[in-house]
Amino acid sequence: MGSNSLSEKIIKIGETAFKLWLEFEKTTPWDNIENDFANVIVDMLDGRVYGINVWTFKYLESAIKQDNENGENLNGLYQIPPDLFVKELTRDCLEKTIVDLLQNGNLEESLNNSTFELKFLEPYYDVIEMEENSIQALTNELKLELPKNHLLHNENVELIARKTNNDDIILELDDKRIAIVNLTWKSKKEIDGYPITRVYKNNVDFWNKEMKQDILEFKK
After folding, report:
1. What's the pLDDT tens digit per position in 65-93?
2. DSSP β-bridge partners for residue 19
3. Are 179 and 171 a contacting pair, CB within 8 Å?
4. How many helices (H) and strands (E) does the chain have?
């Protein structure tokens, strides 16, 4: 993805802080900062990350014109909107915009929910950082432990992280629910509600109700 000194700049709003990665700073200068689109990443430094597709106001007109020419979107009859519109693609404009949005609430409440992603900070350990044998060991143990009456028994799940301070693993289901399973490491089918499992409706719900508190307590 790349970075520069401005991408590492920490922007503070009271007790809230974030970093701002801007695609156009990787390929500067852009020809027309008032008529283009770009990807923006807001790293909240607390486990929340937002990937935002941003258009300028004038680019909407350009997108419609392009569709008229190439026949897409029924010749410009409709447009699938981005996550955010701004006047221009500059750091000053984007910083002020994100600060104002955060002062009015969480970004997942102001923007599309799809912009929200998780960044696994301690005590969480992202699956992409794990060795293949560790991933396989966790996956195999889960299969061994789940009894037929367990709520995850017939679900397709993907391991996305684990905790380093206990035996919890974090799974994503096909419908984007997040499940936390506390493995017993008995390497056999469990009974009576084990392995203990908590399910959240999505990653936002998981961050708000569990992950945020885990990260705060680990930093103490």
Report:
1. 999 999 999 999 999 999 999 999 999 99
2. 43
3. yes
4. 8, 11
- Do 113 and 159 meet the contact criterion of CB atoms below 8 Å apart? no
E strands, the chain, are 11-13, 16-22, 37-43, 48-56, 84-86, 116-118, 124-126, 157-163, 168-173, 178-182, 197-200
- CA atoms within 13 Å, Cβ hemisphere of 51: 5
| Residue 120 to residue 102: CA distance in whole angstroms | 21
Burial of 190 from C-beta contacts in 10 A (0-12 / 13-18 / 19+): middle
CB 202, CB 113: distance < 8 Å: yes
- Alpha carbon of 198 to those of 82, 172, 193: distances in Å? 33, 12, 11
The tokens describing 152, both together, are 């995850």
Task: Examine the pLDDT at 103 and tell me if it is beyond 60.
Answer: yes
Parse the chain into domains and list their residue ranges.
6-118, 124-219
Task: Tell me the two tokens of residue 153.
Answer: 């028994």
Show the DSSP H helices in 22-56 as ranges: 23-26
